[in-house]
TrEMBL record:
The lineage of its organism: Bacteria, Pseudomonadati, Pseudomonadota, Gammaproteobacteria, Pseudomonadales. GO terms for biological process: L-arginine biosynthetic process. This is Acetylornithine aminotransferase. Pathway: Amino-acid biosynthesis; L-arginine biosynthesis; N(2)-acetyl-L-ornithine from L-glutamate: step 4/4. It comes from Pseudomonas abietaniphila. Its main location: cytoplasm. Pyridoxal 5'-phosphate binds at residues 108-109, 141, 226-229, 284.
Length: 406
């Protein structure tokens, strides 16, 4: 029995969907590698990667194979039982990272929710009810639940939903003196993105993360790294903390970890994990066999010397060309980021106009992103062909040329 497919178009979005998104005027319907086709058959080069999600592009054979095989076996059993794909993926994550224990969930917000709850629970159990304060960075982004949006330092996302969760302080990113002033013996956790994603693709300075680690150790606080956007090869290392050589106590991962299938994970140590005893935290779908079978295929492909070295080589291709475009057309003051998470900071003349670059790029057949109004962001597949990089950047340059002439 086939499911009847009713014809739909972009105008239907405004009739049936909650208006919390403003999607582009076209609907992508098919993807292969780093190319996407819309309803009209138009082909685009994908430099957006589903916002740093499609780590192996579209319809990668390893992911399609893993999903298809598992779909014919077992979809869901709940956490009353365990399953083989979840155990295999957890073992691979433990073997590849600092972590000794894994909690699977479905989104970055859920991974961060688990991380923040764990940090508060550990402090409560070991030091009492007064040690619950969290220090986070301004312009950070940690998700959309009430807890995670309160930890994220962007009032535009957290205001207007009634009283906020208390005990959260925000300090400027990459400002170690401000962090030192904010951390106290009441602090249970310092929460940082090694690369601020939504805040403008801003990598941390090494001394800043090292200083955060020292402060946490001095105050019996936990260092939490949000690697929702920077994890699973995106930085050129499996996780960005490896680039810096600074090890967190808790790490959240999502986006790329499922390669496009919704899944996430919180990684931590055995000692800390004990505080999430049976019944303390949970999720219906987390560790789902379908998700974990895809996640296992993702890590098998990504966590190889060839792919990770390729990420750094492709970073150099992007950066050299984007810097050249920026200088030629006077649009970028800086091209920054790690691996294939790249941000082009707009010059004063173009500040606030990242959306115009997004629109112009789409008209030339290339999908890009913004990271706030002042930064143009690129987060393509980690295995994007060099030919696709060249073609996509040719199209992007045409878009910039037209935009600057206009």
């Amino acid at each position: 029995m086939s499911v009847e497919q009713v014809p739909v178009q972009r105008a239907d979005f405004d009739q049936v969907m909650v208006p919390n998104y403003a999607p582009a005027a076209f609907i992508p319907v098919r993807g292969q590698g780093s190319r996407v086709w819309d309803q009209s058959g138009r082909e685009l080069v994908d430099f957006s990667g589903g916002i740093a999600v499609n780590v192996l592009g579209h319809a990668h054979p390893a992911l399609v194979g893993a999903l298809t095989e598992q779909a014919n076996k077992l979809w869901h059993v709940s956490n009353v039982f365990t399953n083989e794909p979840a155990l295999r993926l957890a073992k691979k994550l433990v073997d590849a990272t600092f972590a000794e224990r894994v909690f699977f969930c479905n989104s970055g917000a859920e991974a961060n929710e688990a991380a923040f709850k764990l940090a508060r629970r550990v402090a409560h159990d070991l030091y009492g009810t007064e040690k619950y304060e969290i220090v986070a960075a301004l312009n950070s982004f940690h998700g959309r639940t009430l807890f995670t949006v309160s930890v994220g330092g962007q009032p535009k996302y957290s205001d207007g939903f009634g009283p906020k969760i208390t005990g959260i302080t925000h300090v400027p990113y990459n400002d170690l003196a401000a962090l030192k002033a904010a951390v106290s013996d009441k602090t249970c956790a310092v929460v940082l993105e090694p690369i601020q994603g939504e805040g403008g693709v801003l990598p941390a300075e090494l001394e800043y993360l090292q200083g955060a680690r020292t402060l946490c150790d001095e105050h019996n606080a936990l260092l939490v790294f949000d690697e929702v956007q920077s994890g699973m090869g995106r930085s050129g290392h499996l996780f960005a903390y490896m680039h810096y050589g600074v090890t967190p106590d808790i790490l959240s991962s999502a986006k790329s970890i499922g390669g496009g299938f919704p899944m996430a994970a919180m990684l931590t140590t055995e000692k800390l994990a004990k505080h999430l005893a049976v019944g303390v935290h949970g999720t219906t779908y987390g560790g789902n066999p379908l998700a974990c079978s895809v996640g296992e295929a993702v890590i098998d492909v990504v966590n190889t010397p060839e792919v990770l070295a390729g990420v750094n080589a492709k970073h150099d291709l992007f950066k050299a060309r984007l810097e050249k475009i920026g200088q030629q057309y006077g649009v970028f003051s800086e091209v920054r980021g790690l691996g294939l998470l790249i941000g082009c900071v707009l010059t004063d003349a173009w500040k606030g106009k990242a959306k115009e670059f997004f629109n112009a790029a789409e008209h030339e057949g290339v999908m890009i992103l913004q990271a706030g109004p002042d930064v143009v962001r690129f987060a393509p597949s980690l295995v994007i062909d060099d030919a696709d990089i060249t073609e996509g950047l040719d199209r992007f340059e045409r878009a910039v040329a037209k935009l600057t002439k206009a």
